[in-house]
């Protein structure tokens, strides 16, 4: 019985002494493949689903409201009725005849003043309550009662006190936004780890240094949670308050359009109100992410 001959494969010769070995560098990935395509993919993942839902909702809305018996206008009808408000939001035809852009700016001005005052006062009061057990026991029940009062219930008190619609609207924003800021700040201050307090005592920080270097950074996620809730409540309150106090804000525009039976203008204004509210929330969320290095909730 014969077996086939097996010959070993020749081995590669080892490099002789003094021979130079050339190492080929791996090709570097291009900018298109390493950066641009992943970024576009991430943007597509976040934008395509909402766009599909919006397109479906608009199509369904168009179908349901196109009939002769429909009580609400369709998207195409809104475009025809409010074309000038959409294409030219900053026109000025008179003291009360302004575009939606100007009306939104007037409302944002009131919100900015009231919300800014509420932020400063809320963080300061919340820090005091979080640091002092006696302040917590004395003020927390009062705050829990006052925060349940509806925002518009404060408007008659504000009008009686200030005798003017502008400071009254700012006060309504202030009293609406301050409660979540106070409560979340106090909770954040109480949850500061004891190790942080021990280090502050060792390095002998004064109260002001302890506030800026320990309290604010440690409680920042809680504080920004209160700020996000406060900005949303502020925007809700100013629209409702302007319906009662009048003026040139977006809230009065909605009420005036209702009195004139301009439903298309009301729907358009509501769309703008929602967009502005979303932008305000994203701005506070972005600031929170920058300040807290991503530890705050998005």
Please, could you describe this protein's structure?
The protein has helices at residues 31-64, 75-81, 83-87, 100-131, 133-146, 155-162, 165-190, 194-202, 207-245, 250-259, 263-292. The chain is an all-alpha fold. It is flat and about 75 Å long. 72% of the residues lie in helices and 0% in strands. It contains eleven helices and no strands. Helix 6 (155-162) crosses helix 7 (165-190), helix 9 (207-245) packs parallel to helix 10 (250-259) and helix 9 (207-245) packs antiparallel against helix 11. The mean pLDDT is 84. The longest helix is centred in the last third of the chain and has 39 residues, at 207-245.
How is the topology of this model organized?
Blueprint: H1 31-64, H2 75-81, H3 83-87, H4 100-131, H5 133-146, H6 155-162, H7 165-190, H8 194-202, H9 207-245, H10 250-259, H11 263-292
Helix pairs in contact: 2-11, 4-5, 4-7, 4-9, 6-7, 7-9, 9-10, 9-11, 10-11
Summed up:
72% of the residues lie in helices and 0% in strands. The protein is an all-alpha fold and 298 residues long.
